[in-house]
Amino acid sequence: MSEIEDKEIAQSFLDKVGGDLSSCTLTKEVLLILLQRSSTTLTVDYRKCEIREENTLELLPLLGRIRFQRPTPGFMMSIIRQIYQTCSPHYISSLLRSTDNCLNLTTRVLDAADSTALCYTLQHSQGVKLNLMWTSTPEGALESIVPLLSNVSHLSVDRQRLLRILHCCASSDDQQGASLALLQALQHTLDFSCSSAMDLTDETQEVPMMHLRAEDCRVIAMVMSINNTTKTHLMLQDCHVDEAGLEELFWVLETATLRCSKAQLLQFLALLGVGSESMCVRRANCLSLALGREVDLSHMVLDQQACGTLALLLEYSEELSELDLSHCQLTDRCLEPLLPHLHKTKVLDLSDNNITDIGAQHIYNEVNSTSSVSTVRLFNNNIERKHLYQGDKRFELW
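Predicted structure:
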């Protein structure tokens, strides 16, 4: 302690290590002395520092010269509260510099005072990265945060919080501005998949299926429709969405990239056959644009009706890289509506089905009329005359 209190010794030591003390275990007292005895910016690992989360007031004037690695959400919240309580907005920029512009409040339970302090910080911030994954907020707190999202460059939230924020945007006085700011903060990604529902700190957690109601889907579609210049990534895996909800989403799919389960894709396909011809065509076009270059329905049972609606989708799909219909219990008859469109994909997987020589011949005739198909997988079907395709390297039957 006496050595580091000497200004020259302290400065010499810090010069040698370039201010990097991330490997050192420091008390708050030692950290304060080093900061007071030198002009060097220090890099410290908070998890190795003996600093109590609630005892941060003395650090406020020195934040601009500290770079914190791995600060805990509790420590972050303590600093935010101290700044608010002392009415010191000029410390906010120092705090953000010390944490690489990141406010990590994940897994925290925020009370009303915490939420007020957070809003105060966001009001005086610009381009902040805000992490609210699995963070509990009191009633009305998210409504206060929504108008400040224009100051947030990157927002991380779990799917339950995301849905609440979407509803807040929909009911906001500045609905369009709030929605656009939210999409930009989320990097134009609305993630309702299981990955945004799991608290990685809880190893025993079982994540329930999320149910999106028709009203939820209406709000999602409303927010997505605000900005039609940038595609929104909509991730619906691990969600249950009923028919009314899918109807709400259909019309914004043309400005989205869709990631959904195979069961959900079958639900979307079923809706292609409902309504007028023009409506079915428009829906098929929207769904085609959202799915992109790959269609995977492997291990899903496809009957004639499903194949009929799939054919409508394929009619409006261009430049498919892969169509995977393996393990779908397909028969020659089921294949009939699909045949005119099989040439649109580069890789066609029809393995492990009930296709016979008749169906295989039809597939060969369609594929042989184009040069775009590079691979056709037909192994594990009811095909006996395999020798007919031995000269064509595109066909895999063994």
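Summary: The first helix runs from residue 2 to 5.
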